[in-house]
Protein: Transcriptional regulator protein
Amino acid sequence: MRRKKADVPTKALTPEDFFDLVHLPLKQELTSEDIRSIRRAVASSCKEFERLFQVPARTMEAYEQGRRKPDAATRALLIVIAKEPDAVKRALSPLPPWAL
Structure:
């Protein structure tokens, strides 16, 4: 059934409205110890983790020290890194020159 023009919302969505529509929180919480364990399993330092996975070293330090908590997207990334670190490394590596 086709909507009538009067049925179509005229007000544009605000960023908050959009956030409410698409925000699906990741249910699995990660403690600072979990985050430290994930990082140590794949990198010897926060700087190396930054180089491999593009998460700033200072951000990782804040997560590991419990000063900040990762958002849902970062939690998802950390969980994928914990389960499939090589796949994430391949996905984030620069493209070879022949692929450009």
Observations:
- The mean pLDDT is 81.
